[in-house]
Amino acid sequence: MWTHFVFATFLVCVSALLMWVHQRAWRTYQSEGLDETVLDFRRRQYRRRMQSSAMIAVVGVLVVVSLAIVDAIITAALWLAVLGLVIWMLLLAFADMVSSYFHYSQIRARYVAEHAELQTRLECIRQRDGNGQSSE
Asked: Where do the domains of the chain lie?
């Protein structure tokens, strides 16, 4: 029984720590003066991560609540609710992963295009100036 309390306390503490970290990161992003698309990505990421972190605390509380319930049907309903929360957290994590993948893929594509443009300019300059050899 005390292990349930320890586990629940652990979940609530982890949740509080994660929420604090996400809050600090969000404040940092707000003060950095990011462009609107990046700030929108960070805002949606913050919302998903805060929601997941809060649900961890709710699961911790429900673990303790489950100890006080003696009716089997209510206990089953409670654990189905916990299962639903865990599935929702997994979906949020998957959404965060996919969103981050696409966001950083767009950034990488811009850098690759910029790199190609700079390589083309460099090649033009080399051809124009004789490949860096002096003309003396």
From this structure: 2-97
0.85 exceeded by the pTM? Answer: no
How many Cα atoms sit within 13 Å of 23 on the Cβ side?
A: 8
Q: What is the pLDDT of residue 132?
A: 54
Contact between 60 and 15 under an 8 Å Cβ cutoff? The reply is yes
Residue whose structure tokens are 């390589």? 119
Q: Which two tokens stand for residue 119?
A: 């390589």
